[in-house]
Amino acid sequence: MRKEREIFGKYLSRHNLRDTPQRELILDAFLKREKHFSAEELYDIVKKSDPSIGQATVYRMLKLLAEAGLAREVDFGDGVMRYEHSYNHPHHDHLVCRECGKTVEVMDSVIEELQKRVAESFGFELTDHEMYLYGLCPDCRRKTQK
Amino acid sequence: MRKEREIFGKYLSRHNLRDTPQRELILDAFLKREKHFSAEELYDIVKKSDPSIGQATVYRMLKLLAEAGLAREVDFGDGVMRYEHSYNHPHHDHLVCRECGKTVEVMDSVIEELQKRVAESFGFELTDHEMYLYGLCPDCRRKTQK
DNA sequence: TTGCTTGCAAAGGATTTGCAACATG
DNA sequence: CATGTTGCAAATCCTTTGCAAGCAA
Question: Across-strand partners of B133?
């Protein structure tokens, strides 16, 4: 977390941006979160510490965090953008339960390699990808089963 | 296309829905399209034949087509839902050019198999997935190169 | 006739933006 | 002080919905 703060601080000064209490507050909340969350969820959290903060500030800050390389956008296709840590948190894909929404981060280097090959077979230069595996998690399978 | 019309007709009667000129018109336009398109794009097309048609009708019809199994939603994550044919058009994923938006349908059974295994290794029962490979298409690579 | 359909406009939900007041470097 | 920054509300964008009038069966 120390390192992340440092990165963000440098990002601010390098871009002539200012360090404000609101940004500090949101950065704190962001660093404490472990899982994916939406702007709305983060807003609800920081609002507890500073009820006067505006949602727009949270949305703007998430953009900054992404640009600074600390956050990454994740789109589960439900109309709400979510964010996750990207610093020291290498690329991975998501396994999502259709029933309860639980998510698991997954990574398979063989799949990654095959993706690159598929792209190349069409003459494409692969820059990135998104892969979402949807299904039923162990708990929900049990409940559905009977 | 004969078959698709038949399927849609059956879908309508089975659900006590009605055959209207608007639905026919939209179905025609849909069947003629080869690639992905948004509701807006389809609306622009049918409007030429019937300027009085409403967008809502197009949106509603696309829902029906999806329910009838003729269309499938595709989400490239740019905020606009697109549709493609699903009848006689088996599952596949998409390779999308970040530069010009060109898309190529791809399918790799080895990847599909590995996805299932990854899900199972976490106790999930895989129901479906989404995979988007982003990169630069041959044309855009050439232009970017120099 | 019954009740599904339509077009319209208003509503929705998530995110962005204009702006005047305000704070940071 | 020059500029970023903030909170607010209004504006966007895509999609959905309520509704009265219009049609298919």
Answer: A129, B95
Question: Between B55-67 and B2-14, two packed helices, what is the crossing angle to 10 degrees?
Answer: 90
Q: What is the C-alpha to C-alpha distance for residues A10 and A31, in angstroms, rounded to an integer?
A: 17
Q: Identify the closest residue of chain A to B135 by CA–CA distance.
A: A126
Q: What are the tens digits of pLDDT across the range A45-103?
A: 999 999 999 999 999 999 999 999 999 999 988 899 999 999 999 999 999 998 888 99
pLDDT tens for B103-132 read 999 999 999 999 999 999 999 999 999 999
Protein-to-nucleotide distance from the CA of B56 to the C1' of C11, whole angstroms: 13
Domains of chain B in sequence order: 2-85 (1.10.10.10), 93-145 (3.30.1490.190)
C-alpha closest to that of B135 among A122, A107, A105, A76: A122
pTM metric for this prediction: 0.87
- The nt closest to A60 (CA vs C1′) is C16
- Angstrom distance (rounded) from CA A117 to CA A121: 6
Average pLDDT, chain A: 94
